[in-house]
Amino acid sequence: MADSTIQTIEIDAEPEACFAVAADITSYPEWATGVTEVEVLETGPEGWAKRVRFVVDGMVKEISYVLVYEYDHPSLMSWTAEPGDDIAEMIGSYRFDPLDDDKTEVVYALRAVPSFNIPGFLRRQAEKQVVGTALRGLRKRVEELAAG
């Protein structure tokens, strides 16, 4: 993804556990900072969310968008946004790479272009914050569930 933000984090769990948490999109408001509302609009044949409407706290205003998901279980989860009032373009993915000792490296890539004017450096800074916060939230959630 050209001109996107890419970050990684190591999680003390197998890729399947990481994928399961990421694919449980309806639980995002419980652990994904800023996500205030999730509505699954369409489910795929495997039972995972295919089209999802999100409302997130964008600090300046609430931002609403619809994502369309694709899955390659248990190694990849990717999405694209339907253009809307708040988001002109969004492409993202989680990749779950197995490591030794039943750990996973999660690679999160995101490119988001809002439908409103914002300087490029601020857009990239916001992407970095979203990606870093999401990865830390994912790790915390996965490791909490693994600990029981």
Structural summary, described in words:
- The protein is an alpha+beta fold and 148 residues long.
- 28% of the residues lie in helices and 46% in strands.
- A seven-stranded antiparallel beta sheet has the order 1-7-6-5-4-3-2.
- The radius of gyration is 15 Å and the shape is globular.
- The mean pLDDT is 93.
Present the secondary structure layout.
Blueprint: E1 5-11, H1 15-23, H2 28-31, E2 35-43, E3 49-57, E4 62-72, E5 76-82, E6 87-99, E7 103-114, H3 120-147
Antiparallel strand pairs: 1-7, 2-3, 3-4, 4-5, 5-6, 6-7
Given as residue ranges, the uncertain stretches (5+ residues, pLDDT < 50) are: none
The H-level CATH homologous superfamily, spelled out, is START domain
CATH-defined architecture: 2-Layer Sandwich
CATH top level label: Alpha Beta
Number of helices: 3
Percent range for β-strand residues: over 45%
Strand order of the largest sheet: 1-7-6-5-4-3-2
Major pleated sheet: 7 strands, antiparallel
The CATH topology label is Alpha-D-Glucose-1,6-Bisphosphate, Chain A, domain 4
Q: State the helicity in percent bands.
A: 25-40%
Shape: globular
Question: Termini separation (Å)?
Answer: 36 Å
